[in-house]
Design brief:
- With 376 residues, the protein is an alpha/beta fold.
- The chain has 10 helices and 15 strands.
- Helix 6 links the parallel strand 10 and strand 11.
């Protein structure tokens, strides 16, 4: 089952806008990329606006004529924002100051409605860059979730590109569609959603070797090897987002064993903000640490067989030299003399004496330690 906004697919495009040709105005001049108009000019009814108070607290509102933003410290009329310039600072009824700005993509992603965990901006940025998502590229993705990554991919491919998203669950597709249309101000002309299993649907929807980039966010990307190898063009990039080490390892080994891809590469990114206040400049106590791993590989030409880069073989055994390298003397430890050992024994005996043992038992323990014995 396929559900999509009115947009070009792999086999048909609107007559007035052929695939790969930017849409234009009636006089033939190129128009701005889709959604750009909503990011410029004064605030308009229906727009989302981010209000930040003097303590740095942020609230996002949707402008409605006659509406008001209420807090325990007064209210601010929406009409005061409609028609105002972005970056305006306004005062509410109790004198509280607010700066009004359009939310950035990172702000929107972390606050938008979600039915599944979103791909964080730090990972979406890595995917767009490291997978080389370019304007006009033909991209397929699987695992739409709440649409966070789809938004970044659509911005990268532009109106002349193509993003074909596959999602198993209809409710996730609906949430993603709502979020995408909110930030772009309507259906994006380069986007198509297909409901169903990626492995089956992508082979029906896309021609072999016709896709430039494949982006997978799913539990078992190794199960999609054949489907990816079929639709991905020679030199095309496949990038997967996985959450655990076991998923990462299994995906990498499956790619190596398949032979139709280059040696996989994997990494994770962590972002740590900094506190900036006068001379109190230090790392924040909190950071966005592990969210997931990214693993990428490229499609080889048909008939080419991948190889693993030659590396110096690691040692599997230990020589006498290896063993001698880890003796106490080799690592800088000093020999402990018998005299020192006897002194430590006396110290241990005196510790017993200071305890709450009966004198006879304490003396017996001291004698045992002094003679080199043990105390049960």
């Amino acid at each position: 089952m396929s559900t999509a906004p009115a947009s070009p697919s792999s086999s048909e495009t609107p007559a007035e806008t052929p695939a790969g040709t930017p849409a234009g105005t009636p006089d033939g001049t190129p128009s701005a990329p889709h959604g750009a108009a909503a990011r410029r000019g004064p605030f308009r009814p229906g727009e989302r606006v981010q209000l930040t108070d003097e303590k740095g607290r942020m609230n996002t509102i949707t402008l409605t004529p006659g509406g008001a933003f209420h807090t325990h410290k007064g209210f601010l009329l929406h009409d005061a924002l409609i028609g105002a310039t972005e970056g305006t600072i306004l005062e509410n009824t109790s004198g509280q100051l607010y700066q009004a700005l359009r939310p950035l993509l990172s702000d929107f992603v972390l606050s938008m409605p979600r039915g599944a965990a979103v791909v964080y901006p730090k990972d979406a940025g890595q995917i767009v860059t490291m997978a080389d998502i370019y304007p006009g590229a033909r991209v397929v993705e699987a695992g739409v979730g709440s649409g966070a990554l789809s938004i970044s991919l659509l911005r990268a491919v532009g109106d002349s590109g193509s993003l074909h998203s596959f999602e198993r669950r209809e409710e996730f597709a609906d949430i993603a569609r709502g979020n995408v249309e909110t930030i772009f101000g309507g259906p994006h002309p380069a986007w198509q959603i297909t409901l169903g299993d990626f492995q089956e649907q992508v082979l029906e929807q896309e021609e072999p070797g016709s896709v430039d980039r494949v982006v997978l966010d799913m539990l078992a990307p190794w199960e999609c090897l054949d489907a990816v190898a079929t639709v991905l063009s020679a030199g095309g990039v496949w990038i997967s987002y996985v959450a655990t080490v076991t998923q990462l390892s299994r995906t990498a080994e499956a790619i190596r064993a398949d032979g139709r891809f280059t040696e996989p590469e994997a990494w994770e990114s962590m972002v740590r903000g900094w506190h900036l206040e006068g001379l109190a400049v230090r790392p924040d106590h909190r950071m966005v640490a592990h969210t997931g791993f990214l693993i990428t590989t490229r499609r080889l030409a048909d008939g080419a067989v991948g190889f693993t880069p030659k590396r110096r073989p690691s040692k599997t055994g230990f020589s006498e030299e290896d063993l001698n390298a880890w003796t106490p003397q080799a690592v800088g430890e000093r020999d402990v003399s018998d005299k020192r050992l006897r002194r430590v024994a006396r110290d241990a005996a005196s510790t017993i004496q200071r305890g709450a043992l009966p004198p006879e038992e304490a003396q017996a323990r001291r004698d045992a330690i002094a003679d080199g014995g043990s105390v049960e």
